[in-house]
Amino acid sequence: MIEKTIIALRLEAEKELAACTDASGVEALKVKFLGKKGRIAGLMMSLKDAPKEERPALGMQINELKVALEQQISSTHLRFESEELACRLAKEVMDVTLPGRRAHLGREHIITKTINEAIDILVGMGFSVQYGPDIESDFYNFEALNFSEDHPAREMHDTYYISKQFCLRTHTSNTQVRVMESSTLPIRIIAPGKCFRNEDVSARSHVQFNQVEGLYIDEEVTFADLLQTLQEFFTQFFGQSVQLRHRPSYFPFVEPGMEVDLHCLECGGKGCSLCKQSGWLEVAGAGMVHPEVLKSGGIDPEVHQGYAWGLGIERLALLRSGIKDIRLFLENDVRFLDQF
Ligand code: PHE
Q1: Which terminus of the chain is less hemmed in, N or C, by CB atoms within 10 Å?
Q2: How many angstroms is it from 307 CA to the middle of ligand 1?
């Protein structure tokens, strides 16, 4: 009886083993046949029902079956395991010949680039760089610059006030008196930075823009020095000789004051949409530092004179790259920014 069961069990185990498709199936099979409560163990238990004299021979047969099954199961298990490993490795394999994914590199914004270029040129001409605060007191932004409290020119500035006393600076001229107070003479500085004015946003003006201020104070500084310095700067910046035009203009902190126009490079002066058909583009305000401003900065106007300018950086960038709309600088569209 038991002998038959042994043979049937061997056939059943071999058949099930052959049907296994993976290592975990083989593991389950091992538990089923060879486990503590498995089929082989059950067979051993049933020996007690066999006639005593047959038990040793049957016991041996069961043991042989056990050893044979152990071998078959472990070799099948090993085979599946190595197949599965090979399969996993094949999936993980890296093809080093595939083209890589290009990382998108950032770059300097065209305005940052333009400011840095202007700084490089002016530093090369002997100016050093100073920075003033974006949030400024009414004193340095206006009062020290000869704008009295009720001065009508304050209205031209469309100021963003933060409190009664503080505003976002409307021009980089806020650095002028700060520098005068903290420097020894002669002073020859530039001050780049952001400015803010509550203006209608259009293709030509924005609420936020950049200027580079220039300030030179010494004995015997003349208007001709100012004109010559600006001419040299623009020639270097545009890499060609450019034609400048000077129009008398009013700023409370300079006397005389002027606006500097550049012959439109886009149309060669014929008139186009960039220069509003005039052939000229305004790029800076400038003039001789007003004696009252020198006094605000603790400098004796009888001994020292100075000139100052405020360059519009966006204008320079527009002109040189033929950009038609100032709003593009602040929209952060990489299709636009990638071109520069
Ligand atoms: N601060 C003036 C402006 O923003 C420009 C300027 C600077 C004019 C220095 C004269 C001297 O319009």
Answers
A1: N
A2: 11
Selection from 67, 63, 64, 71 nearest residue 44 by Cα: 63
Residue 113 Ramachandran class (φ > 0 left, ψ -120 to 50 alpha, else beta)? alpha
In-domain check, residue 153: yes
Please give the structure tokens belonging to residue 269. Answer: 């002066």
Q: What is the pLDDT of residue 27?
A: 92
Question: Average per-residue pLDDT in the chain?
Answer: 92
20 part of a folded domain: yes
The answer to whether residues 258 and 186 belong to one domain is: yes
Q: How far is the CA of 255 from the centre of ligand 1 (A)?
A: 12
pLDDT tier, 138 (very low <50, low <70, confident <90, very high otherwise): very high
Residues 6+ apart with CB under 8 A from 107: 337, 338, 340
- State how many domains the chain has: 2
Same domain, yes or no: 318 and 202: yes
List phi, psi (to 5°) of 209. -155, 175
The Å distance, Cα 190 to ligand 1 centre, comes to 13
Find the 286 Cα to ligand 1 centroid distance in Å: 6
Which of 91, 124, 157 represents a domain boundary (last residue)? 91
**CATH code assigned at 179:** 3.30.930.10
Tokens for 203, please give them.
Answer: 């293709």
- Cα 89 to ligand 1 centroid, rounded to whole Å: 69
pLDDT of residue 156: 67
Phi/psi zone of residue 130: left (φ > 0), alpha (ψ -120 to 50 degrees), beta? beta
Across the range 316-322, mean pLDDT stands at: 89
Residue-number span of the structural domain to which 71 is assigned = 2-91
Distance CA 146, CA 75 (A): 98
Mutate which of 136, 158, 211, 259 to test ligand 1's pocket (most atoms within 8 Å of Cβ)?
Answer: 211
* Best mutation site among 171, 213, 215 for ligand 1 pocket (most ligand atoms within 8 Å of CB): 171
Asked if residue 205 lies in contact with residue 157, where contact means CB atoms within 8 angstroms, the answer is no
**257 CA to centre of ligand 1 in angstroms:** 9
Ligand 1, closest atom to CA 312?
4
| Domain match, 142 and 235 both | yes
